[in-house]
Design a protein that fits this description.
Elements lengths: L1 E8 L8 E8 L6 E11 L1 H7 L16 E9 L11 E5 L8 E5 L3 E3 L6 H5 L2 H13 L8 E4 L5 H13 L2 E6 L4 H6 L4 E4 L5 H8 L5 E6 L4 H7 L2 E9 L10 H13 L5 H7 L2 E4 L9 H17 L6 E6 L3 H9 L6 E5 L1
Parallel strand pairs: 8-9, 8-11, 9-10, 11-12, 12-13, 14-15
Antiparallel strand pairs: 1-2, 3-4, 3-6, 3-15, 4-5, 5-7
Helix pairs in contact: 3-4, 3-10
Length: 341
């Protein structure tokens, strides 16, 4: 039996509550594959779960993590033995913060030869979320303009890749230190969200017409402002409430404030304004493996075609998992943050 290393969150709190422990890994079950992990993705849902603010999190003590890349070292019953030795990337329903784990075969994909393990681990959640926001639900078209909130994050960069591939005009909000990088990545217009008039800047860039699609992981007041930036037939795509992230007691009050600030998106109001609103939560799509597989296959084809360009911000060893969380909470990352056993 394999002894694995896992990062366990035993209680709500700050980054310091993450502990590295050893535990036995059972053999792969039917239709499962055992993966030796080289890199595991860090997502804001992991941080919210650690803080006790993520309703879908498993009970504590828990091991979070939605995506890994690594090598297949064993297969369970019903799985082709040819998988052994392959480099794979896949989605995990928690448990990704592990040195070894068993993953259902239908949630794994071979890593394209052009990608490193770290680049591959940056794809599933960020690009899957981006595909849902921009293509599946957002319906972005070549002649339209998109506003990407938090454009420098992992999902933000993935959205930028998709929007550029479609041929849309791109506006992104980010702190000034990220603007040069984003413009090098192809962002048409960068806006400093710290400026009180950032929304006015967006309207000015669109000749006061507004944008066709907004993708927003912040929640609260940001969603309320977004509604005023949509042009006719515009859509608001929501995929998080990271503005509420805080592990202290004040975090609970911050979450309440964020909820109070959210707009009331009544169907009649949306109808009268010719607006649409939708939400994306990849953690609620486990019952749609065929859909996710179709998205991932198109995304991996984008790697081969050159328009999917995962960007790794920083790789932290397991022993520095708390620092990885703090790095993201402080929004210091540009692109994906990873953990390495």
């Amino acid at each position: 039996m394999i002894t694995r290393q896992q990062l366990v969150i035993e209680r709500n709190g700050g980054p310091e509550v993450i502990r590295l422990i050893a535990s036995p890994l059972p053999p792969a079950g039917p239709q499962e594959i055992t993966v030796k992990v080289v890199a595991a993705g860090v997502n804001f849902a992991d941080i919210m779960a650690r803080q006790g603010l993520y309703p879908d999190a498993p009970p504590k003590p828990m091991v979070v993590g939605y995506e890994v890349a690594g090598d297949v070292i064993a297969v369970g019953a019903g799985v082709d033995a040819a998988w052994v030795g392959k480099r794979v990337v896949g989605l995990t329903r928690f448990g990704g913060y592990s040195s070894h784990l068993n993953v259902p075969v239908n949630q794994l994909f071979e890593i394209p030869a052009s990608l490193s393990y770290h680049e591959a681990a940056s794809i599933p959640v960020a690009y899957g979320t981006a595909y849902a926001l921009v293509v599946a639900l957002g319906g972005l078209k070549r002649h339209e303009t998109i506003l990407i909130q938090n454009a420098g994050g992992g999902v933000g960069l993935a959205i930028l890749d998709l929007a550029r591939h479609i041929g849309a005009t791109t506006i992104g909000t980010a702190s000034p230190g990220k603007h040069a990088f984003l413009k090098q990545r192809g962002l048409d217009h960068a806006v400093d969200y710290n400026q009180p008039d950032w929304a006015d800047q967006v309207l000015k860039l669109t000749d006061q017409r507004g944008v066709a699609l907004i993708t927003d992981p912040l929640g609260g007041e940001s969603w309320r402002k977004a509604g005023k930036l949509l042009r006719s037939t515009g859509r608001l795509g929501m995929f998080g409430i990271s503005a509420a992230a805080d592990s202290s007691f004040m975090g609970k009050l911050k979450l309440l404030k964020t909820a109070i600030q959210m707009p009331l998106l009544h169907p009649v109001g949306l109808m009268n304004r010719n607006h649409g609103a939708f939400g994306v939560n990849m953690g609620h799509l486990w019952h749609e493996p065929e859909m996710i597989r179709m998205w991932m296959e198109e995304i991996l084809q984008g790697v081969a075609d050159g328009w999917v360009r995962p960007h790794v911000d920083k790789v932290f060893p397991f022993e520095q998992a708390g620092q990885a969380h703090a790095h993201m909470e402080q929004r210091r990352n540009i692109g994906k943050v990873l953990l390495a056993p």
